[in-house]
Structure to design on (1157 residues):
């Protein structure tokens, strides 16, 4: 039997992760080798598969019950293959970069095993055609993210950040799971292909009638009058609930407001992990999911509006927070949040293709920026405060040039990849007539240019402000190579509208760009950069402190005071039910009752003659009365 | 062949008991006995293809003939529902023996009782007769009390054991009353507690669909106590905390499921829940509220526990709420999922209790504050503990998840609110477990303290512990990746039972329409 080549994509990282965890624990270098090898293999498989046009393999039944099928079935359309290239390509470069960055780590097996586990689950999300299976891999990327954020778990901040990330994702997943269950209950399938096939018929059948009478499954043979059925439900309301449920998954994974708090903390993980998982791929999985199920989301116009506003809100809020951070990775983390918000907004204005376009270009230049930041941190012996850097352009020229390319791409400099994909989103918002969203996006772009140029100026230009800068750690080619390889697509990925064409296939029709779009995007870039240059050039400390922005609008503190404490208080109250009501009052009263009966019985057989005489007399009296009446 | 394997599963522990009583080395014999039971259990799983084809020519005999309960049969067979539980039972029993040691003078007594516990559990799940199931369950239960009282931890173990005895014996008795009441619905000449005979009886036009309200409530109340239905759970957390590791593993992981198992058997195959008069309106909402309390209140109570063993106790009670949901939702998918979930959570719970006992090396009373970070010392433990913990919080790829997701999918249409509560419960269990994991293994503060205080008493885990944790982890992963091997046979059995039940009830309804039958009143009532 010929083995389908696409299985290697899933199995190679799984084998690598198992080897690292079970067999090769003591041989860190071997783990690194196996893991990098599997990443190379995955990338080659994707290239080979695309070049040869290999068909998707037959499905593998994971869980099959009558009426409920969760199978691993691959769906390799333009959307999935684009994402595969991004995931395996950037994944490979990050693996290679890690060889240098993690060279001195004493738990390489955990690190590289975690990376492989991530590659396994991420490719799983990308290729799966079944919502149930997507959820399976969705949770598994969550775990790999948890493991990698907490890699240095002896630092309390790292283990706290890992827990926070896992739990914030779980909150989103509660909604996601309910949304999936909703899809299953309404459409009776979890397969995306099947959904796509039955949806037109379904909506047509709904047509005029606005309510849906659902019967629960599995009632064959049950007499008619006993079948359980719901009261008729308003279909639009149902679609809204399903769309919002699925969106919850994206809110958690892509760290949208109000669950955005975990992503900046996740920067406690090793920097290559931040580049791969918390910038380029995993956090983008939420956007990918939205694009995947867009045809379901689109059933509810209200849901789309909601999604667009959450995205735009996250974009602006996070960009504002980014302007005041002083940790190099945190600036990039807030920037990631903000860009993810833009992508989510693009989905909300009914243009998932632009969202995916931006996702792709963003993956390249953000991975580049994070790896650049990683190189800087590595060179400066793990210094992350940008005010203790400065003047690095001369010391680390390759890093500087590539970082600059990434910055310009992210800031939307005309001609670089980010410019094109950002414009596509602007155009989509404008075409939809959402002018408020349009200007919010433009404002975000302005802030993006501002904080990125600020970052470059403070880190790379001016005078060195710390002795580490004068004696940087030497960077090998395993670290510089990936930077250069990522800089190329950051420059060029926007040209020729290759990516939107890849997504759309032949029937591609692109937005007509209005002059307003260009004015807004170029204006934002120029104004933002100019502002940053004026404000930061030649400064040796933060010239302008806005504590509200620096302290992230106090949202984390607010959550700590309300939700975290709220759970504790609720738990205390409810365990009061356990302690006082059930184990206390109820059990005690039963014990008391039993004891009372026991005492009474003991009293009966106490051996005291008086008592016996008393009861004899009582009995006689009763008998007497009985006879008399 | 089948017969031989089946009798090995049950006979090996029994033989072990006799040989130990005759003076053979206790732990070794217990290992051999449970080990061969495990091998035989796996073989049984393979040759019966997960229980779906049952035992060829299963042997049975009439045990006793009594007026109140009719014919009670003694015999064993497996189907898709009981096979996973038999497997769970032999698996956990072997690991429990691997994990436990006992000092010399009382060693024989300890392992005899432990073997009896596991033997009773296995026999209860494999029995073909409802009353025999009940009797075997008692065989398993009574040694448990003695083991906790005599070999447990803590000063209050005697009173804890006593409380557990009172609760569980009372619960069993109430359940027995319900069972006997149920059997009274059959005419005396055909009355029997043999399960398949009960089903045939339903199929043969007569039906049990007019099960009185009180019988159903009594059954649920009695067996509910056995698995810790809210608010009859207070025996459990302290009971498990005081029990020797092996006993906590067997009871929390395996035996506690007996109440759910028998309810599943009865509601899935004998009592047509959907047709019960009055139940839909009255007791079903009440029971779903109680199940919700199991999930929410006991889940949050777990969050408040300061000791690992108590926390695990509450968490295992919380999971029982999911099983109740699956039973009440009463669909083929949800009932199948209950089987899978009993298996998966049984494994994970047993594993966690076993590993918690290992942590007593670092803090005798398992206070989370004292454990702070000390677990870091034991690398192999971090991995297996983390795996069991991830299984318990429902990570895909590990055994409980398959049960969880199919349970939620199968239940939502019938009970949307309780299902939503159950989904939120998944979040709660994640909070509870991750907090605990961080406290035990990640916080650095305890590391220094552990170096100081633990090093004197610390010793590397023995080979038995390593082997046991390997078996548990392998099982969690194996059935997490291949849940179909359990789910498909279970689903066949469950769907078949439902078909039998519906066919029987349907015929009755037809009869009733033609005039004059048991179900007439019911139909009239429903059509109103």
């Amino acid at each position: 039997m010929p083995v389908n080549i696409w299985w290697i994509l899933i199995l190679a990282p799984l084998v690598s992760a198992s080897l690292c965890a079970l067999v090769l624990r003591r041989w860190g270098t071997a783990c690194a080798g196996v893991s990098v090898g599997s990443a190379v293999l995955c990338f080659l498989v994707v290239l080979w598969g695309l070049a040869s046009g290999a068909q998707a393999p037959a499905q593998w039944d994971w869980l099959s019950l009558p009426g409920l099928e969760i199978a691993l079935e691959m769906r390799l359309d333009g959307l999935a293959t684009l994402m595969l290239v991004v995931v395996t390509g950037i994944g490979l470069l990050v693996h290679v970069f890690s060889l240098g960055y993690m060279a001195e780590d004493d738990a390489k097996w955990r690190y590289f095993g975690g990376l492989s586990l991530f590659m396994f689950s991420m490719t799983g999300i990308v290729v799966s055609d079944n919502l149930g299976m997507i959820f399976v891999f969705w949770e598994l990327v969550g775990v790999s993210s948890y493991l990698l954020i907490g890699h240095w778990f002896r630092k309390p901040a790292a283990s706290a950040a890992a827990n926070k990330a896992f739990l914030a994702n779980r909150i989103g997943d509660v909604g996601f799971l309910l949304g999936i269950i909703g899809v299953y209950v309404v459409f009776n399938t979890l397969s995306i292909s099947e959904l796509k096939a039955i949806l037109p018929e379904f909506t047509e059948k709904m047509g005029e009638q606005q309510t849906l009478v659902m019967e629960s499954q599995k009632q064959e043979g049950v007499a008619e009058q006993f079948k359980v059925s719901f009261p008729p439900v308003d279909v639009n309301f149902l679609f809204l609930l399903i769309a919002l449920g699925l969106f919850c998954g994206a809110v958690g994974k892509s760290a949208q407001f109000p669950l955005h708090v975990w992503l900046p903390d996740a920067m406690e993980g090793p920097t290559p992990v931040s580049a791969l998982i918390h910038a380029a791929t995993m956090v983008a999985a939420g956007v990918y999911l939205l694009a995947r199920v867009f045809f379901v989301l689109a059933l509810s116009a209200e849901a789309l509006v909601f999604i667009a506003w959450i995205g735009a809100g996250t974009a602006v809020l996070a960009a504002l927070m980014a302007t005041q951070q002083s940790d190099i990775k945190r600036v990039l983390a807030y920037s990631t949040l903000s860009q993810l918000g833009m992508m989510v907004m693009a989905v909300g204005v009914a243009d998932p293709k632009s969202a995916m376009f931006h996702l792709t270009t963003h993956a390249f230049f953000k991975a580049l920026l994070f790896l650049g930041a990683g190189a800087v941190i590595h060179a400066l012996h793990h210094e992350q405060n940008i005010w203790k850097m400065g003047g690095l352009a001369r010391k680390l020229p390759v890093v500087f040039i590539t970082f600059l390319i990434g910055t310009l791409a992210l800031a939307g400099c005309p001609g670089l990849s980010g410019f094109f994909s950002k414009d596509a989103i602007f155009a989509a918002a404008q075409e939809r007539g959402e002018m408020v969203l349009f200007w919010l996006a433009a404002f975000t772009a302005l802030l993006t240019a501002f904080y990125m140029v600020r970052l470059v100026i403070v880190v790379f230009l001016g005078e060195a402000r710390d002795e580490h800068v004068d004696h940087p750690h030497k960077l090998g080619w395993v670290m510089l190579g990936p930077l250069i390889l990522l800089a190329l697509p950051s420059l060029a990925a926007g040209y020729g509208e290759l990516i939107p064409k890849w997504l759309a296939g032949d029937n591609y029709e692109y937005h007509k760009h209005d002059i307003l779009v260009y004015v807004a995007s170029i204006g934002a870039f120029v104004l933002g950069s100019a502002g940053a240059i004026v404000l930061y050039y030649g400064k040796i400390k933060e010239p302008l402190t806005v504590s509200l922005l620096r302290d992230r609008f106090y949202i984390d503190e607010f959550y700590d005071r309300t939700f975290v404490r709220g759970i504790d208080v609720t738990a205390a109250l409810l365990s009061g039910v356990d302690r006082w009501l059930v184990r206390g009052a109820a059990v005690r009263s039963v014990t008391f009752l039993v004891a009372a009966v026991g005492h009474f019985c003991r009293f009966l057989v106490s051996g005291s003659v008086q008592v016996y005489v008393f009861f004899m007399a009582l009995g006689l009296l009763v008998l007497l009365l009985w006879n008399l009446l | 062949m089948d017969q031989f394997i089946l009798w090995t599963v049950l006979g090996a522990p029994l033989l072990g008991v006799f040989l130990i009583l005759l003076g053979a080395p206790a732990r070794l014999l217990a290992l051999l006995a449970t080990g061969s039971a495990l091998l035989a259990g796996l073989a049984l799983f393979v040759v019966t293809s997960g229980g779906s084809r049952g035992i060829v020519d299963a042997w049975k005999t009439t045990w006793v003939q009594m007026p109140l309960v009719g014919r009670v049969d003694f015999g064993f067979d497996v189907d898709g529902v009981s096979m996973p539980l038999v497997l769970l039972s032999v698996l956990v029993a072997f690991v429990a023996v691997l994990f436990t040691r006992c000092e010399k003078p009382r060693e024989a007594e300890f392992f005899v009782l432990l073997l009896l516990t596991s033997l009773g559990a296995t026999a209860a799940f494999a029995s073909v007769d409802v009353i025999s199931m009940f009797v075997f369950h008692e065989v398993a239960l009574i040694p448990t009390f003695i083991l906790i009282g005599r070999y447990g931890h803590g000063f209050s173990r005697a009173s804890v054991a006593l409380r557990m005895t009172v609760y569980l014996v009372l619960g069993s008795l109430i359940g027995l009353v319900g069972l006997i009441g149920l059997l009274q619905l059959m005419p005396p000449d055909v009355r029997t507690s043999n399960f398949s005979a009960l089903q045939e009886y339903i199929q043969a036009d007569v039906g049990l669909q007019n099960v009185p309200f009180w019988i159903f409530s009594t059954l649920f109340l009695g067996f509910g106590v056995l698995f810790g239905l809210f608010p009859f759970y207070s025996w459990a957390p302290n009971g498990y905390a005081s029990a020797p590791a092996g006993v906590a593993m067997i009871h929390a992981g395996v035996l506690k499921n007996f109440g759910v198992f028998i309810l599943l058997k009865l509601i899935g195959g004998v009592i047509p829940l959907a047709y019960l008069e009055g139940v839909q309106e009255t007791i079903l909402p009440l029971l779903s509220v109680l199940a919700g309390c199991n999930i929410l209140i006991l889940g949050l109570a777990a969050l408040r526990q300061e000791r690992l063993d108590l926390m695990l106790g509450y968490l295992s009670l919380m999971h029982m709420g999911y099983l109740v949901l699956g039973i009440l939702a009463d669909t083929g998918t949800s009932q199948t999922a209950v089987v899978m979930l009993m298996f998966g959570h049984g494994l994970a719970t047993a594993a966690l209790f076993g590993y918690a006992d290992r942590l007593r090396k670092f803090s005798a009373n398992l206070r989370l504050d004292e454990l702070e970070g000390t677990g870091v010392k034991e690398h192999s433990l971090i991995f297996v503990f983390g795996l069991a913990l991830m299984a318990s919080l429902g990570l895909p790829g590990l055994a409980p998840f398959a049960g969880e997701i199919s349970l939620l999918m199968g239940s939502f249409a019938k009970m949307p609110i309780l299902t939503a509560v159950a989904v939120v419960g998944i979040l709660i269990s994640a909070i509870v477990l991750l907090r605990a994991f961080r406290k035990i293994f990640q916080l650095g503060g305890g590391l220094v303290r552990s170096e100081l205080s633990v090093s004197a008493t610390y010793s590397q885990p023995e080979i038995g512990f390593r082997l046991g944790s390997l078996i548990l982890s392998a099982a969690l992963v194996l059935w997490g990746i291949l849940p179909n091997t359990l789910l498909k046979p279970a689903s066949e059995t469950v769907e078949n039972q439902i078909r039998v039940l519906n066919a029987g009830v349907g015929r009755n309804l037809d009869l009733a329409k033609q005039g004059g039958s048991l179900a007439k009143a019911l139909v009239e009532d429903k059509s109103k």
In short: Chain B has a mean pLDDT of 85.
